[in-house]
Design a protein that fits this description.
heterodimer, A: 18 helices, B: 67% helix
Chain lengths: 505, 377
């Protein structure tokens, strides 16, 4: 191992009201793959943007090859030897592979592009990555993995000292990941320093030499991968020392009490290729099932499959003991399922419609357009739920886009509650909302379950999942790896252990 | 009433009340379309005072206003269907061609009749026309909702090909007919008013009732406002998109009957030529956003009346035909601009600042928007 190639020291970056990075260090060495880890909002993206010249740090220094540098733009950073390949490939699908690699810096003679030379050099570059493809074909004809490689080829041709891969594997399947890792190893062996950002723990342990962990904009530490057990990594990311985990007060009803008789919904080997491996899960009347796992582990995918928001291509459902097809939201609503999606703004609410219209939307859709809900009934229902959920402002006629996040979430809950569902799927219902509204929503979930409703509760926050659920399904790397009864023995530590070990205990 | 007398004169409670009423009127979504229409009418009256006069002749009302409404009738119908399509975040460029096809179909059937004035023959002709118009709408709907083609491309197909279809129906000829019963659709009178006005009013009333008294309007606005959220709320978005294209086709077909009845001839090339552009304009002037979502039927009717008034104004003021299109375009741009709050605010600022030049733009802020920060996620 050689010494430091690029060193960031004491990087601080604040935005109005937010300290995104607080005195963070990062050291990249030639011939190493360095994983940058942290939960959402830990500051990974900001750090990468400082590194690549998108943001200028408020304090701290960047030293590359012993010389202080200050990159003023991504282009500047690229010419200085730092290239980035982003999660969503920034290439032109309609252009050929060769054009994508050389766009903006085509080999020219007398101002004319030398196509043959461009194609030859493109093929050579890709060969270096062990890829033999037709470089004259449009990029869109190649798989996402190949597109990723083309982006890498372009990046390393421009400058080849530091390569940053920001979530490169999030949309790749296992074979494609293996191919990408081969390329990464070969580049590493050629002496490149590679920064690898991902949410997949297994991949970190497979490919990286070192790990830097960030949490809430602060540096937690730098570790050699071989010396950091997975469970410790998870604890460092989440920020709770395993030993000091407080035990929760014991208000959880027993699993045996709610899991009697036929399950309300039984999913058997349900899965979707490229999205979630087949899983089996049952939910009973009055039961709260929690989903735990890191970001990108497949929590949302599971919720969407149960509602038919995505089609499953594997397995089958039984509803109240009877086989039933749930291939689209209409079928799910007809069965009695409600779904509050993870992203309220883009998938939940219709922003320009009023609070009242947003609340009655699902009920109206189920009744069909020819049977409008009488205005008086609408007002009754809407007023009732505005009061019950304390939606503010308590004015049903304001556009829902004017409400705060917590109140928007309540509108979404009200939409489904008036349909009186038997199963309510809540994907991150408490994300990004204030503490008060969060507590109200948690209380509501308990009340609904006590009233006989089944709830699937998805949250990135473990303590919340544990406080509410009767049982917890643990996901990791798009696979359900464990199903844990939430009895007295279950705590955050054991769930984290399940996440870290992938269910292999 | 505040005692400090800010803004209102003390001791005059009605001033505040009137102010509140005015504020309500000013903020009504139809304020600007109405204001523009009134301004155009005032312009016409000041140019030619006889503009507003109505005369009763043989039990028929005549006058410029009546003419405007009668000639606006086909545009109102087309714009009505266009409103619903645009509310779903779509667009239908083929309405002119569909009008030509439906008109050609009806005229072809009538021209083959022994007795062209037979009411039964005309009814059958209209039914045939309605059927082909619905079929055209279905075609557009299937392309957009079924095959997922972008609306502007999907309907461009029929916009271009539809003229050819109309030509095929008329065998490349202009079919002329002599059917008083059919001509009555456009030129007939009932209760002293042109029948075309009643037809347009009836269709407007039906569409307004169906969209606002059932949940159809809400669902269309929801699909146009956020298609994915609507799907996840259990709405069969595609079915409704198909429906609005069929309604749009039907409206275009009805307009086609009026256009061909007006001249008692079906001209596949020119019937309803460019009416799609006027219709889109009418919808936009009426306050329905091309980005989909909220729609206003009243606004669209006003928009169509504004455009027709403008056309009539151009003729009435003897504006050189070569410059009339330019004149129309300039007025339309002004109408659209004054409806934009951002533009009005800028004008108000300029007026306040008088001759002081606006401050130079500040150098690009170095702090990014908060949503760019990972924290918000």
């Amino acid at each position: 191992m050689t010494g430091a190639l690029l060193t960031l020291t004491g990087i601080t970056k604040t935005f109005p009201g937010v300290t995104a990075l607080d005195n963070v260090d990062l050291t990249l060495r030639s011939g190493e793959v360095h994983a940058l880890m942290g939960e959402n909002g830990a500051g990974k993206s900001t750090l990468i943007k400082v590194l690549t010249g998108v943001y200028e740090p408020d304090a701290g220094s960047v030293v590359m090859g012993g010389v202080p540098v200050r990159f003023s733009s991504p282009l500047h950073a690229q010419h200085g030897g730092v290239s980035t390949v982003y999660q969503e490939v920034n290439l032109c699908l309609n252009l050929s592979v060769a054009e994508n690699i050389f766009i903006g810096r085509e080999p020219r003679r007398l101002g004319l592009i030398r196509w043959s030379q461009m194609r030859r050099r493109a093929a050579q570059l890709l060969q270096r990555l062990d890829i033999a493809i037709d470089v004259t074909a449009p990029l869109s004809e190649h798989s996402l993995a190949i597109q990723q490689m083309v982006a890498i080829a372009r990046a390393i041709d421009i400058s080849a000292q530091v390569l940053i891969l920001d979530e490169p594997t999030s949309s790749l399947d296992a074979d494609e990941v293996a191919q990408l890792f081969r390329v990464m190893r070969s580049l590493r062996d050629q002496g490149m320093a590679i920064v690898f950002v991902t949410h997949f723990l297994d991949q970190v342990y497979e490919i990286s030499d070192r790990i830097t962990v960030l949490r809430n904009g602060k540096l937690v530490g730098e570790y050699r991968t071989a010396e950091l057990p997975q469970v410790e990594l998870v604890a460092k990311m989440i920020g709770k020392e395993l030993a000091s985990l407080e035990s929760l007060e014991d208000r959880r009803p027993s699993l045996a009490a709610v899991e009697r008789g036929d399950p309300l919904l039984a999913a058997t080997e349900v899965g979707r290729k490229g999205s979630l491996a087949p899983f089996t899960l049952t939910i009973h009347k009055g039961e709260v099932v929690g989903l735990a796992g890191l970001l990108g582990s497949g929590r949302t995918e599971l919720a969407r499959l149960l509602f038919g928001a995505d089609r499953h291509d594997h397995g089958r459902f039984a509803w109240e003991g009877v086989p039933r097809s749930i291939q689209n939201p209409m079928a799910a609503v007809a069965a009695g399922i409600g779904f509050s999606p993870e992203n309220r703004r883009t998938e939940g609410l219709v922003p320009e419609l009023s609070v009242r219209e947003n609340i009655i939307l699902a009920l109206q859709a189920a009744r069909g357009w020819t049977r409008p809900i009488p205005r008086r009934r609408q007002d009754e229902l809407v007023d009732k739920y505005i009061a019950a959920l304390d939606i503010r402002p308590a004015n049903p006629d304001v556009a829902v886009s004017n409400l705060s996040g917590g109140n928007q979430q309540k509108v979404l809950l009200a939409r489904w509650l008036i349909t009186e569902p038997k199963l309510l799927i809540l994907d991150e219902p408490t994300r990004g909302i204030d503490v008060g509204a969060k507590a109200e929503i948690q209380k509501l979930v308990v009340e609904l379950a006590d009233g006989g409703m089944a709830v699937l509760f998805v949250s990135a926050e473990l303590d919340e999942v544990l406080r509410l659920s009767h049982k917890v399904a643990v996901l990791r790397d798009r696979r359900v790896v464990a199903e844990l009864a939430n009895d007295a023995s279950l705590n955050e530590e054991s769930v984290m252990r399940a996440i870290a070990s992938g269910g292999r205990s | 009433m505040s005692a400090d007398g800010s803004g209102t004169r003390p001791g005059d409670p009605r001033a505040g009340q009137l102010g509140a009423v005015w504020t309500r009127i000013y903020h009504h979504q139809l304020f600007w379309p109405v204001a523009v229409l009134v301004a155009l009418l005032v312009l016409n009256v000041s140019y030619r005072p006889s503009f507003i006069s109505l005369t009763m002749l043989q039990g028929h009302l005549y006058g410029s206003i009546i003419d405007i409404i009668r000639h606006a009738a086909p545009l109102i119908l087309v714009a009505l269907g266009m409103t619903l399509v645009i509310a779903t975040r779509g667009i239908d460029l083929s309405v002119g061609a569909v009008a030509a096809i439906a008109g050609a179909m009806a005229c072809l059937h009538i021209s083959k009749q022994e007795d062209q004035s037979s009411v039964a023959g005309v009814v059958v002709a209209l039914l045939l026309g309605v059927l082909v118009a619905l079929a055209c709408g279905l075609w557009n709907g299937v392309l957009v909702a079924g095959m997922g083609i972008q609306p502007i491309i999907a309907t461009l197909i029929l916009m271009v090909a539809g003229r050819g279809v109309a030509q095929l129906i008329t065998s490349g000829q202009i079919i002329t007919i002599r059917s008083p019963a059919y001509a009555a659709i456009s030129t007939g009178y009932w209760l002293a008013l042109p029948i075309a006005i009643f037809i347009a009013a009836a269709v407007v009333a039906v569409v307004a009732l169906v969209t606002r008294r059932t949940a159809l309007g809400l669902i269309i606005e929801s699909v146009g406002g956020n298609a994915e959220a609507s799907r996840l709320a259990g709405i069969r978005s595609r079915r409704f998109i198909l429906l609005v294209y069929m309604v749009c086709g039907l409206c275009a077909g009805l307009a086609g009957f009026m256009l061909t009845a007006d001249i008692s001839a079906a001209d596949g090339n020119n019937a309803g030529l460019w009416i799609e552009l006027d219709a889109i304009l009418a919808v936009v002037i009426g306050g329905t956003s091309l980005a989909g979502g909220r729609f206003s039927i009243g606004g669209t009717v006003l928009g169509a009346l504004i455009i027709q008034t403008l056309t009539t104004t151009v003729y009435a003021m003897n504006i050189d035909p070569q410059t009339s299109l330019l004149f129309k375009a300039i007025v339309v741009i002004i109408v659209c601009l004054i409806q934009a709050p951002a533009f009005r605010a800028r004008i108000a600022r300029l007026a306040r600042w008088g001759r002081r030049p606006p401050a130079p733009p500040t150098p690009a802020a170095t702090t990014p928007d908060l949503h760019e920060i990972e924290v918000a996620s």
